[in-house]
Q: What sequence folds into this?
């Protein structure tokens, strides 16, 4: 009789622990996603790296807008375009 009683008590404890552990909310997968990029990336025609459009240095050459990562790249590119003319 004691064996049945202890078995029922152990089963009840197991069931309570199991239901308690299942009731904890799990983290959603969407919270683990990286933040979305709000700015467009543009390629520097001089060195070829991609930079955010808002942080780029711009130059209008021949009616077209070019985006550069630095003033040095902008100056070098404009010099090369003048030589080509």
A:
């Amino acid at each position: 009789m004691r064996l049945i009683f202890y078995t029922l008590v152990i089963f009840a404890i197991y069931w309570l622990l199991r239901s308690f552990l299942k009731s904890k909310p799990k983290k959603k997968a969407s919270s683990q996603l990286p933040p979305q990029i709000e700015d467009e990336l543009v390629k520097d025609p001089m060195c070829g790296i991609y930079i955010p459009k808002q942080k780029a240095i711009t130059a209008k050459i021949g009616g077209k807008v070019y985006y550069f990562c630095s003033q040095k790249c902008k100056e070098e590119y404009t010099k090369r375009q003048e030589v080509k003319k």
Observations:
- The CA atoms of residues 51 and 75 lie 17 Å apart.
- Strands lie at 41-43, 50-52, 57-61, 64-68.
- Residues 38-85 form one domain.
- The helical segments are 2-22, 71-84.
